[in-house]
Amino acid sequence: MENEKHLVEFKLEDTSYLTTLTKKYGRIKKYQPKDLSKVRAFIPGLIQKIYIKPGDEIKKGQPLFVLEAMKMRNDVFSPIDGKVKAVLVKSGDVVAKDQILVELDINI
C-alpha cells in the first residue's frame, strides 16, 4: 500500500482520522496570535495626523493617528497600555495593508 505512507492523522473534535491532505491544505499559513505590540494598518491609506511620539506613555483606547482611506478618516486606537517605542510613519505617508506603523513596549 503505497498511499499509506502519505496518510496523516487528522483530529477533529475528539475523533482521530487517517487521511491524505491536499497540497493546498499543506500551504495554509499556521495561525499566529496577534502581536499587540505592533500596530498595523488595517486598510491601505494615507496617514493624515499622528498624535504620539516615541517615549509617550499611552493607555488602551487612546488615539494614535488618523488613517484616511477611500475619503474616510479612521482614528486608530492603541490596543494596549504601554509606551511608544517607535513611530515608523510620518504625516503624508501612504501605507499598505498590514504595514507596521507603530511599535509599543507593553506595560506589565
Unreliably modeled segments: none
Strand order in the largest sheet: 3-10-8-5
Note the beta-strand portion.
over 45%
Number of strands: 10
Rg (C-alpha, Å): 21 Å
Compute the separation of the termini in Å: 55 Å
Helix content: under 10%
Average pLDDT confidence is 88
Topology order in helix (H) and strand (E) letters: EEHEEEEEEEE
Q: Which term fits the overall shape? A: elongated
Largest β sheet strand count, sense and barrel closure = 4 strands, antiparallel
**Helix segment tally:** 1
Structural class: mainly beta
Keywords:
single chain; 108 residues; mainly beta; four-stranded antiparallel sheet; 1 helix; 10 strands; elongated
Q: How is the secondary structure organized here?
A:
Elements lengths: L7 E5 L2 E5 L3 H5 L10 E3 L4 E6 L6 E2 L4 E7 L2 E6 L4 E6 L6 E2 L4 E7 L2
Antiparallel strand pairs: 1-2, 3-10, 4-6, 4-9, 5-8, 6-7, 8-10
Short description:
This protein is mostly beta strands and 108 residues long. Helices cover 5% and strands 45% of the residues. The radius of gyration is 21 Å and the shape is elongated.
Task: Write up what this structure looks like.
The mean pLDDT is 88. Strand 6 (63-69) and strand 7 (72-77) form a beta hairpin. The chain is mainly beta and 108 residues long. It has a four-stranded antiparallel sheet with strand order 3-10-8-5, with no helix packed on it. Strands 7-6-4-9 form a four-stranded antiparallel sheet, with no helix packed on it. A two-stranded antiparallel sheet has the order 1-2. The chain has one helix at 23-27, and strands at residues 8-12, 15-19, 38-40, 45-50, 57-58, 63-69, 72-77, 82-87, 94-95, 100-106.
